[in-house]
Write a structure and sequence with these properties.
By secondary structure, the chain is an all-alpha fold. The chain has helices spanning 2-26, 46-56, 60-75, 84-94, 100-109, 138-153, 161-168, 175-195. The chain has a domain at 59-195: Lysozyme, CATH 1.10.530. Helix 4 (84-94) runs parallel beside helix 6. Keywords: Membrane, Transmembrane, Transmembrane helix.
Length: 197
């Protein structure tokens, strides 16, 4: 007898909950309470950035990005502070988000604080055990890192930090991408603070 009473109640409650769930799922105003863990690392195409430069005579974001990176590197007392403009230019040349190269340098070497002597290799590129890839300058290293990210990673479909981790640091189980994303978020914070009136 109780079964006959509870069955319609259960059915109606289930139907109401199902309708509410779909309503919340389809509501375009709902925002996820969880923070994003992956950063999209694709930048605007160089062509679209050049169109903006052609219309205004200058790229208003270039100066702010350089200032953002200088402040970021200064905060961490990194030797790369003087290379901020070169990083922005190299990122633009290869169509990369300008935050990737600095974020990887922070994760790999603390912003060049822990690198093989005279290697200028702040990104862990080509460092395997006792083998170490060296460069003649930070600018040479930055150019090679930007080229490698674009040609060896992005062109092979590794277009976000988590996917990049699988090849850049295959022994990591998420810590590397978490660290890189952490530094990307720190750069974004500075960008917002500098951009604010």
């Amino acid at each position: 007898m109780k079964l006959l009473i509870y069955t319609p109640i259960w059915f109606n409650l289930s139907l109401i909950l199902l309708i509410l769930s779909f309503g919340l799922l389809l509501d375009p105003l709902q925002k996820s309470a969880l923070p994003q863990t992956n950063s999209i690392v694709l930048a605007k195409s160089p062509e679209s950035q050049n169109q903006l430069s052609d219309m205004t005579g200058k790229d208003p974001q270039k100066d702010i990005r350089i200032s953002v990176l200088q402040k970021f590197f200064s905060t961490y007392h990194s030797d790369l502070e003087n290379e901020a403009d070169f990083i922005v230019n190299a990122s633009d040349s290869w169509g990369l988000d300008y935050k990737i190269i600095p974020a990887i340098s922070m994760q790999e070497s603390g912003g060049c604080k822990n690198i093989p002597l005279n290697s200028f290799n702040c990104w862990g590129l080509g460092i395997y055990g006792k083998n170490s890839l060296s460069f003649n300058s930070y600018q040479e290293a930055i150019s090679q890192v930007a080229k490698t990210i674009k040609q060896s990673y992005f062109k092979n479909g590794l277009t976000n930090i988590t996917l990049l981790e699988d090849k850049w640091n295959p022994n990591s189980t998420g810590q590397w991408s978490y660290g890189v994303n952490f530094f990307i978020s720190k750069i974004k914070e500075i960008e917002v603070n500098i951009s604010a009136p």
